[in-house]
């Protein structure tokens, strides 16, 4: 194995972070996000990335329950924040 | 036309952005010097953890004026196996039962079967062969002997277990400390700290099992006058135990996790003592013997005390074993005791007390100077801490026929070396007491620290994700 599971995870997270930033910049040009939208979408994106990092790391360390809990505790709030941020951004337009 | 031009310009910019980003990342990854990466990581660590780790100038636990150094006679193992407390018949019974069950008797039960007993026996083998009683707190046994032989002119002693007549001089105290710690790490220690010798933490006297076996009970107890030199410093080492082995507690696989490090710490303490002897200084390697390892480890800045009575280290939690080297070398920079919130967390957590099968761990909210139970000749009283009932603990060991380890396995500070646990530790240290209750509940909900779970033995043996052939 060239890379460990954690190394691969963080490499992929780096790519995902870049993509999320690009998507946010792209849609900001189109919809001109308010400060609230930025906050919600930023926090939601961060939580989403953290959820993926936590859950995959928990699987790698062999504690699947921690992974499932990670999806519940960090994943659900992140989706709610992203949806709410999107709603506000669209409403503003 | 103008619009089209603008669109193209945007598209090119995005492409350029991507290209530049990719090229920059590639160049950065290749050319960013290792030193710069290290300093960035160090900076992040300082910002997140540095502020939470406090140091103390003095021993961080209050010690009452009437505190007396603990006697070797009052250690549970010496009382159990060497009869230093003849009135404690229950302790003798437990020692006998433990000896019958350990290694020699196996059951069908998973974790206590022939496979697990054999694993445990192999783990302890080196310790049992070369320093058979240091884990029972008996001093000067096997290679951990107190001898400080001075080689005669022309004598050939390839084992190097003799004190060099020429003393090496270090350029500074810091260099000396760093060099000794580097040597200890090279030999196999996970953590190293150096502290001044403190008579409070030395055993008041020592038990000689040979005198007992040879029918000379009057010679069974001896004092520090037999120690070959006046120790000035104590080098304390912690050895990380295997996470998956300890997680199987209570079982012989857990015992194997502990035994592996007993064997290793015996080897490393001996090697470090030889290193010091060859530098021209006197040194005595010790396991559980000669002095109390936990207060020495606290004084040497390796970690904090805890409810379960074990040392809690910042990096490995309570999942460590401890060894010491007494030396007359004192041209060193001594370490300071540290605090990162473990004792504070213990006030609210109590997971170890809940998990303990023998109910030996205190549920008291605050640390005390005395244990809550009567007749505790085996506790070093007069230090403000949580008292663990070693007798109940020992009775539990005798039931299992191996050491238990449920307290370590259940502790929220006992986690494998993954980034998210280090992050949680840092957040926990920064949070006030009431949040600790929440952290404890989350630890349970997330599935950590359950004990007596036979599935953990399958996880220990599972070859998935492991490479035994090196590729």
TrEMBL record, chain A:
The chain crosses the membrane at residues 6-25, 37-60, 66-84. The keyword Transmembrane applies. Keywords: Membrane, Transmembrane, Transmembrane helix. This is Dehalogenase. It comes from Ancylomarina longa.
UniProtKB/TrEMBL annotation, chain B:
GO terms for molecular function: 4 iron, 4 sulfur cluster binding; metal ion binding. It is found in: Cell membrane. GO terms for cellular component: plasma membrane. Its cofactor is corrinoid. InterPro entries: 4Fe4S_Fe-S-bd, 4Fe4S_Fe_S_CS, RDH, TAT_signal, TAT_signal_bac_arc. Keywords: 4Fe-4S, Cell membrane, Iron, Iron-sulfur, Membrane, Metal-binding, Repeat, Signal. Residues 336-366 form the 4Fe-4S ferredoxin-type domain. It comes from the Bacteria. This is Reductive dehalogenase. It comes from Ancylomarina longa. The lineage of its organism: Bacteria, Pseudomonadati, Bacteroidota, Bacteroidia, Marinilabiliales.
